[in-house]
Amino acid sequence: MIVTTKDLFKAAYGKYAIGAYNINNLEQCMGLFRGNIDSKAPFIIQISKGSRSYTNKLMLEGIIRSADKVFPEAVFAVHLDHGDEATCMDCIQSGFYSSVMIDASSESFDKNIEITKRVVDAAHAKGLVVEAELGQLGGVEEHVSVSEADAKLTDPAQAKEFVTRTGVDSLACAIGTSHGAFKFTGTQGLHFDVLAEIQRQLPNFPLVMHGSSSVPQEEVARINAAGGQIAGAKGVDDNQFAQAAKLGVTKINIDTDGRLVWCRVHREHFRDDPKDFDLRPAGKIFMTEYAKFIAAKNVKLGSAGQLPNVRQMLGI
Hints:
- About 50% of the residues lie in helices and about 15% in strands.
- By secondary structure, it is α/β, with parallel strands linked by helices.
- It has one domain (about 5-315): TIM Barrel.
- The chain has an eight-stranded parallel β-barrel, surrounded by six helices.
- The chain is globular.
- Keywords: Lyase, Metal-binding, Zinc.
- Its cofactor is Zn(2+).
């Protein structure tokens, strides 16, 4: 059942975080639903601007609608990830999405507010909710590219003003994460001091962590052993998710890890069976492996086992 992110955040705030997983195709969708059902977790499906144009936006929407029928016990939101204003407006008018993210974080503070406010007004008129971003994460993911020099942490004082002036429903904060597989070098980690101050300024307000894949080193090693060339990749320690959830983070975005699972499965399969040219055997392996990954990640997020509580809260 498709619900809004606001519904999920009410249940999660201060206790656990909801996993927000990007998908692009049938195999990812099936693995995602299976993993969340196996771990009894509510979840958020994220559709990016890139995934909407990968084939056609209606194709991916059709796959998700079908999965909703195949897995009637699932409770999830459908969310546009990193949308520009035009894409947000298209998604709001489509009648399919339950929430959108407007990312005008590359603009000035006042321009970000101006753009975000327009999206918020349009979304709220349709009963949808909006996520925005303040501060800038470094790294590269699809059309999002921010150099390390341009990356900046969210200013807690600005965060309060931003939310007040825009009426946005949740806020993606820059607290040290970055997009892509190369998030950290050395011993850097999350800036929990900044996150704690944002929560103090915005009590009981849902916060979001982008760029939160953990980039499992076993996955990287197996990819490289099967012919990959991913050197120096390092992600967020998922043991820190619980601490972030206590500080108001209710949504944690995970994309890169899913791509690594896909890459590892396919590289190993065709390395080990070079005569195979059928896409289905590798696809079946991936769906199983991705479901296992999702279920394990939900344990770290604290969302595993929460589905019955969410269904009860929503009366479904």
